[in-house]
Amino acid sequence: MARILTGVSEQIPTLEQLQNLNPRQQPTYADADALTRVMDELRRRPPLVFAGECDELRTKLAAAAAGEAFMLQGGDCAETFETVTASNIRGTLGVLLLMAVVLTFAAQVPVVKVGRLAGQYAKPRSNDNETRAGVTLPAYRGDAVNGLEFTPESRVHNPQRLVETYNHSAATLNLIRAFVKGGFADLRSVHSWNRDFVRSSGVEERYEALADEIERALAFMVACGVDNDAFRTVDFYSSHEALLLAYEHALTRIDQRTDTPYNVSAHMVWIGERTRQLDGPHIAYARQLRNPIGIKLGPNTTGAEAVALAEAVDPDREPGRLTFITRMGASRVREALPPIIEAVEATGRKVVWVCDPMHGNTFETANGYKTRAFSQVVEEMNGFFDVHEALGTWPGGVHMELTGDDVTECVGGVEELAEADLANRYETACDPRLNRSQSLELAFQIAQRLTDGRIRRTNPVQEFRHEDF
Ligand code: PEP
Ligand code: CO
């Protein structure tokens, strides 16, 4: 039974208390009363997710922490109101489902599917301002705060945008729910898209064998008469960065059954690298929620810091509650990640270790595009798998910025996109995303690592024997 969430929580700090904790990356509104009116309105709106769904996701993530599941989290860096269309939502969902099939087959464990969508509208920025041709304006902070257009009117921080954020999130989630239960996620059709990709993208040689194997496995199941819901529908969850304290606070409710607070704007929320200060308001807020929580960790994180964050957010060591999303950069992952994992593991707690191979690998091209090289993304992902393999810990998942469209935002990949190609279709409102074929190619590469790891785990003495004789 769906559990309804009501009321403003007295168990979480008030917004004022949070605002006294030196918040970073928050909008500055000229009209405080307008924000209060918006907050009142949001507090009356129905929840976008149910407590029971958040609990279900937590249970699935507990399996990922225990080495019995793998998490796939992905979507736009920044959703925009304008791009909330059926075709965009279907595109992002479709590419995630495709990747999930390949990963499930390779890992032979459930893949927990989580979108960076239906709420990913607020962005932390390195600079408060942006200057173009001698004109300086406030930086774009996501559609939840201001507009992308480079005009003074558009860049004003406007609290009314929080209501629009809620509305667009609701529309997105509604369509996703219809898609994943309404036949779009049918395993057989998802796999046939996969086949098309393998045939048409020039990666046939490398990936055909895997695609063939998946096909045979599906045919086998059909022949055996397996034709249940697991074939036709999937569980899919929403997540976003909990950046704007006012918005997240207004969408926090008490679950009447357990009398505990949930963020009802997403199944899972994460705290970004720039706002995860131990004594800051974002951690003070997140620690009170029952939702699964993610925390981004960059390359300067110390083991002690990671342990302190884990203690703060997950004092009861609840399985599935905490996911560390590490984003080290391809050149630093091998040296920066092990001390963090070792320190956390030494406490005996289990978290989900997820690799974000995007945010440590961004650079600007000579012609002014923010981009990422596909090879660097793969390199960080491989470093992540190598580190976990060496430490005997489970690489619990990946976190990606991607889209189902054929954009040209990241260089490299099977289509060998060059810097000169970026101008063709560069559409992101914030960070560069992998396009559809780059996303799938990455999924095949991750699949290879998961398959290798599985063979090693199930057959640990094989290599030794081979040398012995
Ligand atoms: C993001 O995920 O878009 C982001 C800003 O990441 P990070 O907090 O890791 O920089
Ligand atoms: Co980003």
Compile the SSE list and pairings.
Blueprint: E1 5-8, H1 15-19, H2 32-44, H3 51-65, E2 70-75, H4 86-107, E3 111-116, E4 129-132, E5 135-138, H5 160-181, H6 187-200, H7 204-223, H8 229-232, E6 236-241, H9 245-250, E7 252-255, E8 260-263, E9 268-271, H10 281-286, E10 293-297, H11 303-313, E11 322-326, H12 333-346, E12 352-355, E13 363-364, E14 370-371, H13 374-391, E15 397-401, H14 436-458, H15 462-468
Parallel strand pairs: 2-3, 2-15, 3-6, 6-9, 9-10, 10-11, 11-12, 12-15
Antiparallel strand pairs: 1-7, 4-5, 7-8, 13-14
The site of cobalt (II) ion has 5 residues, from loops.
Measured by DSSP, the beta-strand proportion falls in 5-15%
The separation of the N and C termini measures: 60 Å
What is the second-level CATH architecture? Alpha-Beta Barrel
Number of strands: 15
CATH superfamily: Aldolase class I
Total domain count: 1
Q: What best-fitting shape do the alpha-carbon axes yield? A: globular
Identify the bound ligands.
phosphoenolpyruvate, cobalt (II) ion
Strand order of the largest sheet: 2-3-6-9-10-11-12-15
